Every structure is written in C-alpha cells, then in structure tokens.
Amino acid sequence: MGLFKVDLARPESLARLIQLLKPCAPFCLPILGTVFHSWPCRSSADAETLTRLHLWLSFELDSPEVPALFSAIVLSPVDNNQARYFCSVDATPEKPTPDEKNHVSEFIEAFLRAVDAELGLSSSINMIVGSDPPTRTGILVGSIHDKWVDTLSLIALGNGGCTKYLLPPLTSRSSPPATDDRRLPEDLTISQLEPSDIPILKSASAIPHADEYYTSRCDMSVCIRTNIEGSPSLPVAWAFPHADGSIGGLYVQPQFRAKGLAQQVIEAAVDRLRMGEREEEHGGALGWNWVDVMENNASGERLFERMAGAGWKAGWKCNWMMLKFP
C-alpha cells in the first residue's frame, strides 16, 4: 500500500485536493475542514499554517487518473495531534468487500508507521474526562465511518461513537441573523468566548481539551452572556468550530435550558462560519456545516431533529478511535 504526502504549501496541490474531494461531499468534509479550520484566525489557507498539517493519500495526487478506491487522512497538531480519515467508498451503502477492508487496513497501518517513525508524534488526549491520558502509543483518528470499525478493531485502544448531523450549503436566508441581540431577553447578549471563560468551558465539557485549544477557538466562537448592569458578564450558552470544521462544544447552563438558546447558538455559529474569504471555506467546508453528536446524547439528537425545518438532517454513524502504532 502506498502512502503519498500532499504538499499543502503548494497552491496547485491544495486546489487539486479540493477538486478531488469536492464530489465526495459530505463524507470528505472533515478532511477539508481540518485544512481550513485548524487555525481559524488566519485570513485564508496560507502556506505558513498549512505546512504544519500532514496530509496523505493512497495515490499520487498528480496522477492522471483517480482510482475508484482511495483514502485520505490528515493530521493536525492542534488538539493533541488528532487525525481525520476518509475513504472513497464511505458513501456506498453496501458492506465493505475484502479488498476494501484490506485497502483501509493497509493504508491506516502505513499512516501510523509514518507518524511514529518519521514525525515522532502521538495523541496524548484522554478520551474521557477523569481518565488517564495514554502514553505515547498511537493516534486518535476521528470521523472513521462505522463500516470500518470491525476492520480496525484489532489496533484500536479505544472507540467513541457519534452520529453526524449535517446542514447542506445555504443559498438564502428567510429569518434575521442569529447574532441579532433583539431575539434575546434584555438580560442576555450574544458575543464570543474569551480566554477568561476557559475554566468554565473545561468544567462543562465531557471531552478534555488543552487551554491553548480553547484559546484558538475563541475568535470564531459564539457565546450568549448575561447582560446585567453592575454584574460580571457570564457565559450561559456557547459553541465553537472545532479544528476539523465541525461545530462543537455546545453547552447551555442548566438554569438557562428550554429557552431556545442552544438553537440560537447553533444558528449564530452557522452565520459566523459563512464569512470565509474563499467559497470553499464557507461553513466547515464547501458551504456545509456539521456536528458530531456523541452516542447516548439524547438531548443533542432531539435538538437537531427539531432543527430539521432549518435544513439539518441526520447523516451516518462515525467513530473516534485511538489507534496504536504497529
């Protein structure tokens, strides 16, 4: 199995990568989302930041013909060296064939060998708050389609399942912007997260992140705050774009629930993500927005089912797997 590095610092390589993956949307979105959103503060996909990403394909990007079966994986140093994986047959409803399983297994193992031997990187993130972070044993790979779980189970140290909910590219708006304060009670206002909010974010999250990661998300985040004269402004509901382009971190303080704040935060996050300079960067990628709702998160599932009228729909099951080095 070949493993071919893509030089993202070359504008022609980035353009060709987008051309390759665009017909594979929405299944390929976390790959492009990682390219566009690992550093959301940058003005566009520039060479300085893209050289810090590591992206591989199972074939040469400059090949004259694209194979029907191919894989792509991207590793970002943001948030403890996580990776995102995509296979060209993710969209097919059929069960994977033995050849497809072998392709995925060999590609992932080649990727893990390259990261271990050539880059010396590993994921030190613990998948659950309160658990011990793993030693240098592997890479946390996200957005693995559910059809590959059995194929990769022998090299998996842990696995967390999610359902993707997706919002297709928007062409028009029939309602006021969600960032409009007039939709909120007088004692609330909408802005963004600040570094001083990080202790509150960490105490509310079921998934641990470093302070530096939260800081990198603040500029594109959405936060509804208290707005009471003479009192400190406190965050009561928020969300932010993850490094793979998905909208995540959604949380509403218990005393403010059942007031529609979660939906407004999501709508505002979608508005904010439409502001990319390049059309490909709108939304998480290619104009799409998506969230990953963890297994057994019934309230999260109900929220996006209620938002079906705004275009949100359930997609497919995917997995976050800690894959050990060979």
UniProtKB/TrEMBL annotation:
It comes from the Eukaryota. Gene3D superfamilies: 3.40.630.30. InterPro entries: Acyl_CoA_acyltransferase, GCN5-like_dom, GNAT_dom. Pfam families: FR47. CDD domains: NAT_SF. One of its GO terms (molecular function) is acyltransferase activity, transferring groups other than amino-acyl groups. This is N-acetyltransferase domain-containing protein. It comes from Gloeophyllum trabeum (strain ATCC 11539 / FP-39264 / Madison 617) (Brown rot fungus).
